[in-house]
Amino acid sequence: MSAEATNPATPGPITPGAHRRRGRPRIDLRRIGWAALLGPAAGNRLPDAIGHVVEAHRAHHPEAPLEPLRRAYVLAESSHRGQMRKSGEPYITHPLAVTLILAELGAETTTLTASLLHDTVEDTEVTLDQVRTEFGEEVAYLVDGVTKLEKVDYGAAAEPETFRKMLVATGNDVRVMSIKLADRLHNMRTLGVMRPEKQARIAKVTRDVLIPLAERLGVQALKTELEDLVFAILHPDEYTETRELIAANDARGTDPLAEIAEDARVVLKDAGIAAEVLIRPRHFVSVHRARRKRGTLRGADFGRLLVLVGEDADCYGVLGELHTCFTPVVSEFKDFIAVPKFNLYQSLHTAVSRGDGEVAEVLIRTHQMHKVAEAGVVALGNPYAPPADEQTDSTGERADPTRPGWLSRLLDWQEAAPDADTFWSTLREDLAQDREITVFRPDGGTLGLPAGASCVDAAYAQYGEDAHACIGARVNGRLATLSTVLSDGDTVQLLMGQDPASEPSRDWLDHARTPAARIAIRRWLTTHPATPQPEPEPEGRRAPESAPRAPQGAPAGRPAEANAVVDQPGASVRLAGCCTPVPPDAVTAFAVRGGVVTVHRAECHGVARMKSTGRAEVGVRWGDTTQCRVSLIAESFSRPHLLADLTEAIALESVAVISATVEPPTQGRVRHTYTLQLPDATTLPGLMRAMRNIAGVYDVSRAQHPAQTTS
């Protein structure tokens, strides 16, 4: 708590976040500052100035070594001696306050040591090599990471590169961001000494980037207080109204939330469940949001009940008892224990009402879950403590067990961002997503996506740039378009084609919400500009529109998918689009204008027409084959999910769907026509068998398109 904050237990104005911290001892940083001016203690005795840090640290880590903290404080105090903050306090009070914040959250000794030293390399004559020599590589790495973030101004022109560096530093060691967040919190607490315009600029950056990062790292204790401090600066009128609303509620003689809490204690005691029932006041921004959502607030709306138990199973026992003895509000129930949030958060959420209409929101969690809910990654201790079975990744780098999935995704796309401005705008868009959903994959895995994400986003989250080949999806067992917006808990099966020339549609950008998807699609579109349509061939030489297209680099007129060897040297060969022959079909060929030879299946309807016009047949045989295209017709009885089942069967045979049409059902029957790209012609019989095995399908045959007379 800052020196400027008023003790909430005494009369006076309520400061942001103060009512949430009710009951916590007030720490006088001015007294700490004067203790710091007296210099370090003699010998190896711990200086009085770090007494509060040591006390908070030992509460979480009783056996933690204190000597590194003593030596770090001695170096920091001596190097910052004579420096003053704009508030008039000795500068050493800042690293002390930052370290105290982290100690109260449960940070381990290495983080606290680096926190005490985090400004020494930047603002004093202490060098990074000196820190490395005296405190080791890990402390030096953290100090260097925070220093790099401090070196870049927060002006608008510098913001993109600043936060790109911040993201990279965070990805390499999340403790860097923990120190940065605590540093920003203390600076925000003492921001009143700065000009209003500078306060507003710093508050906006805090709101747009640092608060969302704190949310994603799960450090709720820092996030909520930062929200209140930003709220007070950027929205002073609403803040004042909210403060008066809270003060008026505190002045009421009765507290319905306290009454419900006592009733809950009795219920759980009678049920034999050892539980601690606490009242958790809402912070300012939470009260403001609740008021906007509900209008008039009742007494129980100013806080929540927090029930802490020992084991996971007890959480569900508490839930059952509360739902039995109170009236549950079913729509408010959420299970974040079975499916934790992307930021490590776990709890059961519910709400119960009593006869007079008061509704109390209830959070149920274990003590360990509560520790992680408050401190996030900070509560996980040293992620690099070398256990007996220490593992490293394939590059030999130390693996970070605290890196959340969202952070890995951000690191991936920040490398792919073409420039800093794109990175910055995309980062802000991504961090603005205040809610994330979890969708399930058929293999049991999960994907974390922002609310409003579509199947396009799921495809790129799962497959990266290979998602260019996605041809469809099934959501909860039903065929869905790639534009389908996903909901929390959906099961998504992505249907992938095998065509190496697959390309994303420009329309996908309209449905992509995640940076990974948008950047990948834009990059492909940028590197593959639309090819101008060729001039139309003279009448009589135009190939049927369904004829295969030659890939880039293939000689003009050559078939796109297979080698046809004809007895006419120098002729260009084209597979007829009317029958799409593939090996080992019996084929025949006819010479047409322009030195082109068209190849037909022997039973093609167009063969008789070509012969009737006097076309001479050309000898032809199959050469070495690679990929080939074929058109198949599936005749079936109409039933739900038939298209999805057929598409899935095709995908399982490693066959790409080039196009598909479904005719309207007639007398309970339906016809599907697919143009498919086969990896090898030998797969065709197996593919047709797989399609015939789909329930309701009674025939699969090769397509015969109406023949076109070719001059």
UniProtKB/TrEMBL annotation:
InterPro entries from the UniProt entry: ACT-like_dom_sf, ACT_dom, Beta-grasp_dom_sf, HD/PDEase_dom, HD_domain, NT_sf, RelA_SpoT, TGS
Residue stretches making up the HD domain: 91-188
UniProt-listed GO biological process terms: guanosine tetraphosphate metabolic process
Domain TGS: 435-496
Domain ACT as annotated: residue spans: 631-705
Positions of the UniProt region annotated as Disordered: 1-25, 383-403, 527-563
Bias type Low complexity, positions: 545-562
GO cellular component assignments: plasma membrane
Pathway as given in its UniProt record: Purine metabolism
Family: Belongs to the RelA/SpoT family.
Protein name, as recorded: HD domain-containing protein
Organism: Streptomyces sp. NBC_00119
Lineage start: Bacteria, Bacillati, Actinomycetota, Actinomycetes, Kitasatosporales
